[in-house]
Amino acid sequence: MKPRNRIFLDEKISTGKIIIIKDKQAHYLINVLRCKINEKILIFNEGEWLAEIVNIRSKAIELSVEKKIKDLLKQRPIKLYFSPLKRNPNEILIQKCTEIGVNIFQPIAMEHTNISKVNVDRLKLISSEAIEQSEQLTIPTINQTIAFKEFLKQIKNDELIIACTVQCKNVSIRQIIKNNFNKDISILIGPEGDFSKVELDNIKSHKNIVEASLGENILKGETATIVASALVMDNLSQC
Q1: What is the phi/psi pair of residue 171, to 5°?
Q2: CA dihedral of 142, 148, 154, 159, whole degrees rounded to 10
């Protein structure tokens, strides 16, 4: 029977190793998940292992790593450039897009961005929990916020950025990916006030950015990121 619990460990894992878990993660396993001695658990970091809980103390839990059951496969980079939102929508954005398969998050401060700072440590915790739940193996990279001008400067030559704009009505993400499957695909979502005129001019003139439509309805920021991410991952899997 498959173990009921699965956690990420920020340390090197190998068969036969004894691992001591302390602090918040131990509290979570002992008091929230109610783990017991002799219970099997899945642990992951650059691969996945089966481990057994061999001892539980008041603030620590001891694991014995039994065997590796899954290797890490090479992932193509899926980057999401987005305008930071308020705390709760931001956390929903990170959680859901991580579950979908986005593995790099880059916040961008734009002209209509209301909140430019993000709590990277908090968002990394959200993404780790989403990875545990969705049975993926790699924790996404979450970067600090950069300015829109800096974003334009760091675009790679082999990167194609799909910018989802309100103005674009007739270009589908499906067709863009079909025509550019071998490139590194990224997603760009603007703030809820939309891109400014200067930002749109830069988007339209940049050789590595192409506009796409998310449909007729005007979507909230977190909804747009989730829809765009799902469409990109679905179409990449079909090409």
Answers
A1: -115, 120
A2: 80
Angle between helices 120-134 and 87-100 (to 10 degrees): 40
Mean pLDDT by 10 residues, the chain (239 residues): 87 94 90 91 92 92 94 88 93 96 96 90 94 90 97 94 88 90 93 92 96 88 95 86
- pTM for the model stands at 0.87
What is the phi/psi pair of residue 69, to 5°? Answer: -120, -10
- At residue 226, the pLDDT reads 96
List the beta bridge partners of residue 57.
none
> What domains, with CATH codes, occur in the chain?
6-70 (2.40.240.20), 79-238 (3.40.1280.10)
The predicted structure's pLDDT at residue 18: 96
Long-range contacts of 67-74 (CB under 8 A, 24+ apart): 67/15, 68/15, 69/42, 70/44, 70/137, 71/47, 72/46, 72/47, 72/137, 72/138, 73/137
- Please tell me whether residue 28 adopts helix, strand or coil conformation: helix
Tokens standing for residue 25: 């993660």
pLDDT at 239: 61
Torsion of CA 65, 67, 69, 70, to 10 degrees: 70
The β-bridge partners of 101 are none
- Distance between CA atoms of 173 and 53, rounded to whole angstroms? 46
State the Cα–Cα distance between residues 138 and 205, nearest whole angstrom: 34
